[in-house]
Amino acid sequence: MQKVLIVTYYWPPAGGPGVQRWLKFVKYLPEFGITPIVFVPKNAQYPIEDTSFESQVSPNIRVIQHSIVEPYRWAAFFARGKTQKISSGIIPPYKKQSVMERLLLWVRGNLFIPDARKFWVGPAVKRLENIIQTENITTLITTGPPHSIHLIGLRLKEKMNVKWVADFRDPWTSIGYHKKLKLSARSRKRHKDLEKKVLQSADQLVVTSKTTKGEFSVLTATPIQVITNGYDHEGVKTELDKKFTLSHIGSLLTDRNPVLLWEALAELVAENTAIAQHLSIQLIGVVGENVVNMLETMGLKPYVNILGYLPHEQVLEYQSRSQGLLLLEIDSPETRGIIPGKLFEYLSVSRPILAIGPEDWEAGRMVEEHEAGSYIRNNENEALKKLLLEWFQMFQQQRLEIHPKGTAQYHRRELTKQLTKLLQWVSS
User: Fold this and answer.
1) Is there a domain that residue 307 lies in?
2) Is the pLDDT of residue 80 over 50?
């Protein structure tokens, strides 16, 4: 069997969407004749943990851990909550930033290039050189963010005779929060230079959206393939909520706050007593303070249930019971290529999806293409209100349902089949 060495920062007990992509690839690769060896940090400082993922790691998979220095652990002595948010890419608006937050952002952007995990690069390269030689590894995979993981691939590519596949779960310098890092002109250039060098040095690039592929194609002639995220279950059989439940899964913070949606729901509650009796807004994940304040200001607080972060299996059950699922994105050109991982799990449970995001949003177009719900742009107030009223009327008639098409391609096994073909081509 062909061996591949996978270097990733996020691995169980890490929680959130970042861990699932390669956890699932590793699960299915042996079915297609590939033996994965996984290299991960030991005692990493993960912003979110979900121990339920640990049971999904096959005991037959070899996982090698190597110690990591985590600057966020030091910074936590001074501002624990703030460092956790920054390490997750959660950055409050400038006016709401404390002096400590502004200092931490400047340090993060200008001293930790490309990110705070840069100190793992040297030690990891040294350990991996030995593993590559001992195991006769010919194909190396790095996945980011954090994009310092790609610097490990870059150094090993320069030193050793390996084929290198760089997987980008998110963009690098074009991601929305990058502009908030208080970068100096010199630091901005350094980020750009490192990004370009990685893109041009890898043998193959993998991205999760067509938009990111288009952005990278301008910077490099390296082959690029889109392999999206996906789902790994057949749906949870459960009864639907008796309430008109609209659920959002994942972080809902300042920039993603869907003012348009809250305004429409507030108007409908005021105008329609039946909606006021049945509406339930379910938020699973981290919810920003200003989102909570806005819900209260608009009179929607009595309808809101904030559940916080839940283990993945519970999340699947909640979304399967929901009448409608909310897919929300920041209204910005930089987010047009962002396809939230939850979209694929939404598709798998066949509940109507309400996607609200920027113009020409790739994820919104996918919802429409798969006939899985509706895509509303951030200026379509009347269209949104009309849609919600239609959904509620269908809910009353017990016929609020969808029949999405073409979603089997997003099962993790099918996506791993695509990856396998790519790895065989790269190594040939």
Assistant:
1) yes
2) no
